[in-house]
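Just scan my protein:

——
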Amino acid sequence: MPYSLVVNTMTQNYANIVGTVKDYSLVYQPPCDVANLILEYPTYKAIGDYRLTLNGKSLSHGDIIDVIEHDILSLPINRRLDRAIELSDLLLNILNNGLAARANLDFNIIIDKENYTGDQFVEIIYWLIGQEEINYPSHRGKMGVRLPITRYHEAIISVIYGFFNIQVVKQRANIRNRRPPLCLAGGIITLQQRNQIDVNLLNNINKI
């Protein structure tokens, strides 16, 4: 599994804890090309859980939803769909291949005013979503890393088609105490709206 590195690394980090420590008082810096990407632990959740910070700021799925929105909207209208498909392809690649995923050579994206290459974006997303395999492991029938990839795709659809706003996506990203809905499920779009979505995006959504 592409995310066994996250699970095994953080499980071992927890096993190495001696005595009682405060939440988020320990740090682990994954071997990657992203400066100042830090995992802070322990947390009040499952053994292995962590909080990812980038340049000293906590990074959440909601933040990536905002990044996707701003990235697509920064382009002229006639280029937005192509960018949406590029993002979708890369996110699905990360889902299936983890750190082995590769972006187009000219890919770049801005997160909190910092510019990142495609390979750096892969690393950021990998370590951010990996915690979901710890808290909601897919081998136990839960959504695991599929959850954030699902919400990121809903952000893409929101920006391109406007069937629902980005706040709806964020709310769905924060659902607790019940199984989160699958991508575009739960009545947020009609069948007529679904039929308007680009076939490349729909194909990727169906593969999540």
Notes: The chain is about 50% helix and 10% strand. Residues 60-207 form one domain.
